[in-house]
Amino acid sequence: MSATPDLAMPNTRPTPRRRQGVNFEKNSWIFMRASGLILVILVLGHLFIMNILDGGVQRINFAFVAGRWSSPFWQFWDLTMLWLAMLHGTNGLRVIIGDYAKSGKTRFWLRGILYTASAATILLGTLVIFTFDPNLS
Ligand code: HEM
Q1: Residue 2 reports pLDDT greater than 60
Q2: 127 to 99, 113, 119: CA distances (angstroms)
Q3: Do 69 and 134 contact (CB within 8 A), yes or no?
Q4: Which of 38, 88, 95, 122 to mutate to test the pocket of ligand 1 (most atoms within 8 A of CB)?
């Protein structure tokens, strides 16, 4: 028998049943759009404050950061930006690795490196935001 499908024959394969439970890929698709929208506000606000307002980057020093992070509002802003950008970027790269890595082994190792680097950056950044000591000299 030939391996090519007979196009004159109707497709008799049963329709795959819809998988029940949490649909990870669909949720990740929604997350990319939602986090992208929130990031536009957070990143544009960040860029405007840090690079344009009141002399821009020239005025950024230890005292400037200390002043900003004395406010829970800016701590929360920076924390949200860190988490969303990292999770958004990591999930985007996870998909790209899935698209381009040919073998399961390559996918496993590339994603392992990605998740390790991402977790380390999120942990370190979060730690810095919450343990920053303005009295260090
Ligand atoms: C500033 C606002 C941002 C918006 C509006 C945005 C929006 C999006 C959207 C809608 C997707 C999904 C594309 C798709 O499914 O085809 C995406 C993918 C992606 N984003 Fe963002 N993003 C933003 C910021 C970022 C940041 C800060 C990073 C890195 C940390 C990043 C890294 C990625 C990567 C790696 C992908 C996967 C690209 C792909 O699938 O081809 N994005 N972005």
Answers
A1: no
A2: 33, 21, 12
A3: yes
A4: 88
In a domain, 60, yes or no: yes
CA distance 31 to 88: 8
Domain presence at residue 53: yes
Provide the CATH number for the domain around residue 124. 1.20.1300
Question: What is the arithmetic mean of pLDDT over 109-117?
Answer: 98
Domain of 109 in residue numbering reads as: 33-131
| Distance in angstroms (rounded) separating the CA atoms of residues 100 and 107 | 9
Q: What is the pTM of this model?
A: 0.83
- Does any ligand 1 atom lie closer than 6 A to the CB of residue 36? yes
CB-CB contact of 42 with 80 (8 Å): yes
Question: How far from the centroid of its chain's Cα atoms is residue 136's Cα?
Answer: 31
* pLDDT value at residue 88: 98
- Using left for φ > 0, alpha for ψ between -120 and 50, and beta otherwise, residue 53 falls in beta
> Considering the domain boundaries, does residue 79 fall inside one?
yes
